[in-house]
Design a protein that fits this description.
The protein is mostly helical. 76% of the residues lie in helices and 0% in strands. The chain is built from 16 helices and no strands. Helix 2 runs antiparallel to helix 7. The termini are far apart.
């Protein structure tokens, strides 16, 4: 089955290509979304440099960041279900191609418009890969849905965490705002080879004869009554989580640089990605129990407050400790609620529902961060960040209280 026949939703009668093992397919699905997210976050330590070179304000930086998130959210809403109809491989190939174009435009940008256009295409790429890779991982591990969710979150959180550090290291090469994207483009182009050679599996929802393009039209997601509570809890925890992550990936580099008084891009990138790195590593922890979610949310709530304390005391140690604890608390809590909704959703709806969870989750990276950019312009970075972390902490504590109340019910 060729990529072109998949895109036309007319699979060939004879399946040709590399008949990869389940392990190879797992690695490939995770590697694609990981690599795309690395590319989408290479810019994090570069924002102070881009801000100086292009004459951008703090609001301009958050607008460039938000263009990525808004394009990602729009694509998830419009095309989150496409991989069910065109096949997982075809969706991943489209994602890689969009990522290549977006990275190139961003690397050549000389104004806010082209910068935002490149970021928007990177958002499209991540969105196309999100539902496809998550669904592919679940299909490859049908008897182990919890591990499928762990691999999904490990690949996504790991990619977002690694991007800032890799961007900071590669920015030490000649051409600090272009070299990271040239090297990343080579890696993405290399991924196209095994994806093209792979023997694709049939789409789980092939279109009916006649008008195949109708199945690609946007649709309103529906969640069964039994999964609705789990869906909204996962969406709320995800929104809060990515509000914190959005800060780490946009204005945090400049904020952290002020705290520790450094202009080292590798160090700033490492600090910006520390929270997400801890979140990724938490997927390897086997923590269970009724109180894991409220405990994780409480740790997140306390940790984000400590970020403001680290600024007040100019403490690098406290900054690192708070970042790691925030990531661990978020990672454990989000994995539990994500596993819950994934287990309650029927397999044919998995890609669409997971995409919808991520629609709400990624909005957390856009809406609060845009507000933070406005507040920074109005009140200054320190005051705006202090208000932001207080709000995030309060939201985490409210969610912790609600989930604790639910956890205590069976014990009565």
């Amino acid at each position: 089955m060729t990529v072109f026949s998949e895109l036309r939703m007319r699979p060939a009668a004879v399946r040709r290509g590399w008949d990869a093992s389940t392990t190879a397919r797992l690695v490939m699905a995770g590697t694609v979304i990981f690599t795309l997210l690395v590319g989408a976050n290479l810019a994090t330590p570069l924002y102070p440099l881009l801000q100086a070179n292009l004459g951008l304000s703090a609001l301009g930086v958050t607008a460039a960041f938000a263009s990525y998130v808004l394009a990602l959210v729009a694509t998830l809403m419009l095309a989150g279900h496409w991989s069910d109809h065109i096949g997982r491989r075809a969706a991943l190939i489209l994602a890689v191609l969009a990522g290549l174009v977006g990275g190139w435009i961003f690397s050549q940008a000389d104004n806010l418009v082209s910068l935002s256009a490149g970021r928007a295409l990177q958002g499209v790429a991540v969105a196309l890969a999100t539902g496809a890779s998550a669904a592919a991982l679940r299909e490859l591990l049908p008897s182990r849905p919890e591990w499928a969710s762990r691999f999904t979150l490990l690949a996504t959180s790991g990619g977002v965490a690694a991007g800032p550090f890799i961007g900071g290291v590669l920015s030490m090469l000649p051409g600090p705002t272009t070299a990271p994207y040239y090297l990343h483009s080579l890696v993405l182009a290399g991924l196209l080879v095994p994806l093209y050679l792979l023997q694709a599996r049939p789409a789980i929802k092939p279109p009916a004869e006649g008008r195949p393009l109708r199945v690609l039209a946007p649709r309103r997601p529906s969640v069964s009554a039994s999964a609705r509570g789990a869906f909204w809890l996962a969406a709320a925890v995800g929104f809060l989580s990515f509000a914190v992550f959005g800060f780490c990936l946009s204005l945090a580099p400049g904020y952290f640089a002020q705290i520790i008084q450094t202009d080292s891009r590798p160090l700033i990138g490492a600090l910006a990605g520390m929270t997400l790195g801890a979140s990724a590593m938490s997927q390897l922890l086997s923590v269970r129990g009724r109180f894991v979610v409220p405990a994780g949310l409480a740790v997140l709530g306390v940790s984000v407050l400590l970020l403001a304390a680290a600024a007040a005391w100019s403490s690098l140690l406290l900054l690192a400790l708070a970042s790691v604890c925030a990531g661990l608390g978020q990672g454990v809590a989000f994995r539990m609620v994500f596993n819950d909704v994934a287990a309650k959703v029927e397999s044919p709806q998995h890609a669409q529902i997971v995409s919808t969870v991520y629609v709400i989750t990624y909005l957390g990276s856009a809406v609060p961060v845009i507000g933070l950019g406005w507040a920074t312009a109005a009140f200054g970075l320190g005051t705006a960040v202090t208000g932001f972390v207080i709000l995030c902490s309060a939201a985490a504590m409210v969610l912790a209280a609600l989930t604790l109340r639910t956890a205590l019910r069976p014990a009565r």
